[in-house]
Design goal:
Elements (H helix, E strand, L loop, with lengths): L1 H9 L4 H8 L3 H14 L17 H8 L5 H11 L5 H11 L16 E13 L5 E11 L5 E6 L4 H15 L5 E4 L6 E3 L6 E2 L1 H10 L2 E4 L9 H15 L7 H16 L10 H9 L15 E6 L5 E4 L2 E4 L8 E6 L3 E5 L5 E6 L7 E2 L16 H14 L1 H13 L4 H10 L6 H13 L5 H9 L7 E5 L2 E5 L1
Helix pairs in contact: 1-3, 4-5, 12-13, 12-14, 13-14, 13-15, 14-16, 15-16
């Protein structure tokens, strides 16, 4: 309308007529014409009212970058003096796309980092010809984008570690840092400050001299390179291809992998294999002389009997861990048990049979091992009987031989007689019992009660009694 008024004015039309034609008050028309004649402004000056919230833009960005919700950010800003409604702030955040309008691209030096992950590739045929859910493992070197892919059918710890070992073998070197997501095969406790890594996986990394670095919770973009690697193999290898069997699928993947590493990468504009060989390989950690010997890891709870069950066998654990969860490392010959702090608390030779108890008596509390069947128990009662006298010790040996299962009952009874009788008298009673072939606590007690321990020892031989002193 500003331009229309000036156009009509240039034709010589009077102010009143311009006002009637445009339905604009003549004072407004007069003001526009005067401004034009004075300042020669051809276009209207748009009055833009200063937004109060724009003054807080940097503060808003800073708060939201700390993962605060808009509600929480509004509370903080109100305390600092912001004067607007929550809906105004919410509208401002949406319009300016403050929460997702930018990102930081992370660069790594040669040999510094590899990123690893599993990706779901649907149902595929395994080595036995069964159709199963399959995953593709990808290790991508952060500098050169040199890739290793492998198809697997589970996400167990053993599978996860074996994929790493094969990838190191393929690269002929080891990256200094392994960046991973918080999957269970790699991280047992997700924590933004101090994640707890799966013990066997950490042991593998230590063997190769590499450091583990888990992404922050809910921040998969921190390993965006391997995310791209998974997406690339899905879209460029699995999409639209048919495989006769598992062997054919793996054979095609190996050939395709060589081509993929020889392509011009979209970001680096170089071939990954050439970047790796020319710039990165020499910076990788050297492979150790021996590959990592993987053990399987299991988590078990210690029973009241101080044992854990693994492969239908029973292995003892120190009594103080009863009711606690422990980690068990298995290899072909040995079983190692660790507490939650990753301290080794027990070792056993691995049993090849079933239902076998492997028990270390030292794992029980001292008072618990003073029961039949334990060496400490037998030695204790043997020592007590020996102290009474030679005849008592002989009685102990005889009764232990003749009553293999419950000998300790009679022995305990004899020892209890020391509360009433002297060792010398008890030893004489045992001598008399041995002479007559008596192996009973109650008979020894009768001998003592009837004061028979000093009577001559007699046998009936050939119609006459023979007396022994």
């Amino acid at each position: 309308m500003y331009t229309t008024i000036l156009t009509l004015h240039r034709t010589g039309m009077k102010i009143r007529k311009i006002s009637r034609t445009t339905s604009i008050h003549r004072d407004t028309v007069r003001k526009i014409i005067k401004r034009y004649e004075k300042e020669k402004i051809e276009e209207p000056i748009i009055y833009k009212r200063e937004s109060q919230i724009e003054k807080w833009h940097e503060e808003i960005v800073s708060l939201l970058s700390q993962n605060l919700s808009v509600v929480r950010a509004y509370e903080e800003l109100k305390e600092k003096g912001l004067e607007c409604s929550y809906s105004t702030l919410s509208h401002y955040v949406r319009n300016h796309k403050i929460k997702n309008n930018s990102c930081i691209r992370l660069h790594t030096d040669p040999g510094e980092e590899a990123q690893v992950d599993f990706g779901d590739v649907g149902r595929r045929y395994d080595a036995e010809g069964k159709l199963r859910k399959a995953y593709v493992f990808n290790m991508r070197l952060g500098y050169s984008r040199y890739d290793y892919w492998e198809i697997v059918f589970d996400q167990k710890v053993e599978t996860w570690i074996n994929c790493h070992v094969k990838a190191f073998r393929y690269f002929c070197g080891v990256p200094k840092v392994i960046k991973l997501d918080n999957l269970k095969a790699g991280v047992t406790k997700v924590d933004i400050y101090e994640p707890l890594y799966q013990k066997e996986y950490k042991s593998m990394a230590d063997h190769y001299g590499s450091m583990l670095s888990a992404c922050s919770p809910y921040k998969p973009q921190e390993k965006g390179k391997v995310e791209s690697g998974i997406k690339y193999v899905k879209n460029n290898f699995f999409a639209g291809r048919e495989f006769k069997n598992n062997e054919d699928m793996n054979c095609q993947l190996r050939k395709w992998q060589e081509k993929a590493n020889d392509r011009i990468h979209g970001t680096t504009k170089e071939k990954p294999v050439e970047m790796y060989l020319n710039k990165e390989k020499e910076t990788m950690l050297v492979l150790p002389n021996a590959e990592y010997n993987i053990s399987s890891w299991h988590r078990r709870r210690v029973g009241k009997d101080c044992h854990v069950i693994i492969d239908n066998n029973y292995y003892s654990v120190p009594a103080k861990y009863v009711g606690d969860d422990v980690y068990i490392s298995l290899n072909y010959k040995l079983l190692k048990i660790y507490n939650i702090e990753n301290e080794m608390i027990a070792t056993h030779e691995r049993s090849k049979s079933k239902g076998v108890f492997s028990t270390n008596a030292a794992h029980y509390d001292k008072y618990k091992v003073l029961c039949p069947g334990f060496e400490q128990h037998d030695e204790l009662y043997e020592d007590k009987m020996r102290k009474i006298g030679d005849n008592s010790y002989a009685f102990y040996l005889e009764i232990k031989d003749k009553h293999k299962r419950d000998w300790y009952r009679a022995v305990k009874g004899v020892i209890s007689l020391r509360k009433t009788y002297s060792d010398e008298i008890i030893d004489l009673a045992c001598k008399r019992a041995l002479h007559f072939g008596i192996y009973s606590y109650s008979r020894i007690k009768k001998i003592l009660e009837n004061n028979c321990y000093n009577l001559p020892l007699t046998d009936y031989i050939g119609g006459e009694y023979a007396t022994y002193h």
